[in-house]
Amino acid sequence: MNKLILFLTIIFLSASCGNDNKKADAYGNFEAKEITISSQTAGKIIKFPIREGEKLQENKIVCIIDTTDFFLKKKELEAQRNATASKYSNIIAQVNVLEEQIKILEIEKKRIENLLKDNAATKKQADDINGKIKILIKQKEQVKTQNKNLFSQLKVFDTKKETIDNQILKSIIKNPIKGTVLTKYAEENEITLPGKPLYKIADLSVMKLRAYIDGKQLSSIKIGQKVNVLIDTETDKMKKYEGTITKISDEAEFTPKIIQTKEERVNLIYSIIIRVKNDGKIKAGMPGEVRF
Length: 292
Prior knowledge:
Layout: H1 2-21, E1 26-31, E2 34-38, E3 43-47, E4 55-56, E5 61-65, H2 68-117, H3 123-170, E6 172-174, E7 179-184, E8 191-192, E9 197-202, E10 206-214, E11 226-231, E12 239-248, E13 253-254, E14 268-277, E15 287-291
Antiparallel strand pairs: 1-10, 1-15, 2-9, 3-5, 3-8, 4-7, 5-6, 7-9, 10-14, 11-12, 11-15, 12-14, 13-14
Helix pairs in contact: 2-3
């Protein structure tokens, strides 16, 4: 009886440990989509309250860079534009005066033409009035040309204003993705420059396991397939997760040195990407096993 109990116990333990002792079909390391957020303008950081390890929502304002210089430049530009725009009314007034003078001369021209028909006026009088009208028309066109130049100047001011507004907008930095702050590179009151890193963030809620298989295994997997992913724990027992194959490489490569022995590194293998929902225990760089 005791021998029977011992035999059944061994069978039970073997069955319960069988899954963890089973050889994995693929090995790899976990990756996270990391993004480094950099400054797009120069200035003093006046607000940057985030902390490493903090979870941030998408579009949350995380950093504000001093925009005083931009604000003063914008005010100066607006004053210059207003001064230039004030010339517009003077030009319009000149055009109106010239048009009024042309109208008066046109009336005089008709009167002289009627007198000329009755031989009460000379041809010289008609030529003189036509000459005066032509001169006024040319003057009016010259004034209108000034108006075109004025509009061109105003467009330049508007373009410069849009550039400054864009710089002010870039001074307010919004977090681009939902994720966890991995590293913070700057602090409040520091001076930043365009392209200088501010912080690094990654979405750790979903991890990617980049694993490798040989050519013989290709036919046994497909994109969208559910697989078991296992990681080491503090105990000898491995923790199991459900993963989904999201990518299968169509080109062979040599086995990465970090996960295989020297003899196996000469073999050609294919990389696969497996998406795994993270419960907080999976870390970037951590090794993982895959069982199909």
